Amino acid sequence: MSKSKIQVDENGKLKCCLENTLSIIGGKWKLVILWHLGVEGIHRYNELRRLMPGITHKMLSQKLKELESNGLVHREQYNEVPPRVEYSLTEKGYSVMPILEAMHKWGNDNW
After folding, report:
1. Does 5 score more than 70 pLDDT?
2. Contact between 64 and 33 (Cβ < 8 Å)
3. Measured distance CA(31)–CA(37) in Å, rounded
4. Residue 101 to residues 37, 64, 96, Cα–Cα distance (Å)
5. Which of 29, 95, 28 is nearest to 61 (CA)?
6. What is the pLDDT of residue 26?
7. For 79, phi and psi rounded to 5 degrees?
8. Residue ranges per domain, the chain?
9. Is the pLDDT of residue 9 over 80?
10. Which residues form the HTH hxlR-type domain (predicted)?
11. What crossing angle do the helices spanning 28-40 and 97-109 adopt, rounded to 10°?
């Protein structure tokens, strides 16, 4: 294993690359969103919402915005009536898929 990079944040608190990774992809919903987009491809907002029955409108919107701001998800808006918005993974988003696939395999093996 490689050595972990340790940094100090603006408050003098130690941070490592694992904390950085978890801050970007951590949490129940971000992982599920990334999984659906990575495995199934492009989805519209309501399709994602149907795939995750426990998520609220506010939470899905927030998590999609966070993933977009971190460069993992691309949001494409089409100027049509009615408006259409599609979400997909970016190249950076696809780079997370081996991690998610390993988590999926581990979870399946240890069910």
Report:
1. no
2. yes
3. 10
4. 13, 20, 9
5. 29
6. 92
7. -85, 80
8. 27-109
9. no
10. 16-111
11. 110
Output the pLDDT for position 20. 85
What six digits make up the tokens of 71? Answer: 């460069």
At the top level of CATH, which class does the domain 27-109 belong to?
mainly alpha
Of residues 2 and 77, more confidence is placed in 77
Phi and psi torsions of 66, nearest 5°: -65, -45
Question: Hunting for tokens 């808006």 — which residue is that?
Answer: 77
With contact defined as beta carbons under 8 Å apart, do 75 and 85 qualify?
yes
